[in-house]
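Hi P.,

Sorry for the delay on this. The queue was packed all week, but I finally got your sequence through. Input first:
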Amino acid sequence: MVADSVYARLRAAILSAELRPNRRLVEDDLADWLRVSRTPVREALLRLEQEGLVERDRGWIVRERNPTETRALVECRLAIEGYAARLAAARISQASLAELTTLADAMEESGLSRLEFNRLNEEFHRLITLAADNPMLANLHAQTKMNYWNLSVPVVFTPDVDRQVHEHHRSLLVALAAGDGSTAEQIARRHVQLTMDIVLEAVGLQVERPAPPG
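Then the structure:
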């Protein structure tokens, strides 16, 4: 559907900071930019409003996430992903463990783009949450994930941080395979804390990017 495509494009533009926080979003300009009518643009903006990525202030505007709110979101992920890992250690299947191992292997390949790394990493953590076999917990995880980024952070990830991420993933796999819920929870929380420290440091950084047409 056109509306889904417009929503995905605008969401990606916001999360990558192509459309920067506090930028005014004029429906006609966006429609011209994306070569669609105003109707799918308005539908997409309404969906993005529900996710907390845009807001109305005498028109549409890209919502800026403040450090306090960002901290609250990451703290939610600390609780959700930590407990999900604890539950998964007792409930995960061998097939899911094999799939997680494949994802961890893929993330360690050289020459992997940041976009692909992020996609694999997101899938890795989604599968752990699903392995917890708790639909409500999975829904909470998906909800916090939707609101997690409103700034461009990948530029501050360094090779040393990537190394720590890989170590966390491998240690988490060992704990899950051993059925060690306590250790799995500790590792998952430490992993999210690593991201939390980077994100909170990055909040407020201004990165100049070419503005889209419109």
